[in-house]
Here is the input.
Amino acid sequence: MSIHKSVMLEEAIEALKLKNGDVVVDATLGGGGHSLEIIKRILPKGKLIAIDQDSEAIKKFEEVLDKLKFKPKKENISLNHGNFSDLESILKNNKIFKVSAVLADLGISSDQLDSSERGFSFQKNAQLDMRMDQSRKLSAWNVVNEYPGESLERILREYGEEKFAYYIAKTITNARKNKSVDTTDELVEIIGNSVPGSYKRRKIHFATKSFQAIRMEVNNEKQNLGIFLKKAIEVLNKKGRLAVITFHSGEDRMVKNIFRENARGCICPKEFPVCRCANMPSVAVITKKPISPGAREIADNPRARSAKLRIIEKIHPVKSA
Here is the structure.
């Protein structure tokens, strides 16, 4: 049984403007909370395409479906093991080429965080892993023990926005000269030895940004997100909606920028007196500012505190490159 609480469940589902008969993609199945609400709104004629790179998430959701009082038909649901960057090929495998709505929740699920053997959390000692897809070879152990110091510093600074990236990377490379860094507790101790005491007394745990950065590198999250957003916009029907929930400022910035780029009209240089590009905006930005969780949800689920929801609507076909 999943212990994950879907963030901004009501806001995200309402944003998609779903109706009976819609074909909808939940690009990040996770605990399945969003998918269950989607199913309720699109049955009996609709279809859900759910995707997750964690095979355990799919297995758990299959168990949830078996226990539902209302039984969706087989043709109403397609569960797919894969990364959301493979959206186009997954849809083709399902003989679907256009969809009514797409939802992506970029947060790591509570099931993964609380799994003692996955190594996502600094709050439980485990082997360094952090792979969302267990079939992948690259793990957190490889990143921590095999990456050059310069690469570690770049990852911590770029993905984690960690201001002590240089010192943490240097301490890691020094520590692994004596023995490999094998567990989350060992990594936390190294990070703690790299930052000043005042940094350890902050509300946010001092290892949070480093663990986040390493996880993003292991799972190639930034690159996959860019690919996914482009494909998601392409596959939307006119008036179809894309809703994305982020938990990291870098991810939110990427989503905002890609949404803005696709919402632009003319891209001619400013010095051109008349538009010559004939570029048409492909989407309309519904959320000029991102939607954040309410105080009640944050109190009930502290992991929701950094979440931001952005929404766009397809208004014009994307020009092929």
About this structure: Strands lie at 23-26, 47-52, 77-81, 99-105, 236-246, 283-285, 308-314.
